[in-house]
Design a protein that fits this description.
Layout lengths: L1 H23 L8 E10 L2 E2 L4 E5 L6 E5 L5 E8 L1 E8 L6 H5 L21 E5 L2 E4 L2 E3 L1
Parallel strand pairs: 1-8, 1-9
Antiparallel strand pairs: 1-2, 1-5, 3-4, 3-6, 6-7
Length: 137
């Protein structure tokens, strides 16, 4: 029984170590990071709900941010580099939320913008603060 408790403690310690590392931003030592913010518009009007997703195909690094009510997004810290971008609509409410009266949004984001491979949207993130706006047409 004592070895079982020891194994459990080691497992918990390993999980805790990985969690602390992940939350602390472990990665390549001294890797430069930047922040990126901007506005997403669709046919000239702010896109007020949805998610902006950035993916660096070379490194596999990605980040996403929700749009606010004015069409703005912000990613606080991301490795510098070139990113492909997708804009996805918000998730549909689950059946319980609909039954409780949740509003179902009828937001149309053209399919081509919902995938980083087809959107033709890109962002170059450099050290420091970056502003990248997207107009969906």
């Amino acid at each position: 029984m004592k070895s079982c408790a020891s194994t459990l403690r080691l497992g918990l310690l390993a999980v805790l170590s990985v969690s602390v590392c992940w939350l602390g931003g472990c990665g390549p030592a001294g890797a430069p990071t930047g922040s990126v913010q901007g506005k997403v518009t669709h046919n000239g009007a702010p896109l007020t709900t949805g998610t902006v997703t950035l993916i660096n195909q070379g490194t596999g690094v990605g980040a996403s941010a929700e749009l606010d009510g004015t069409g703005n997004y912000r990613v606080e810290s991301i490795l510098t580099g070139d990113y492909q971008v997708a804009i996805q609509p918000p998730a549909a409410p689950n059946p319980e939320e609909v039954a409780a009266g949740a509003k179902v949004q009828t937001l149309t984001i053209p399919d081509k913008f919902q995938s980083p491979q087809t959107s033709n949207l890109t962002a170059k993130v450099e050290a420091g603060s970056n502003t990248v706006d997207f107009e969906l047409k």
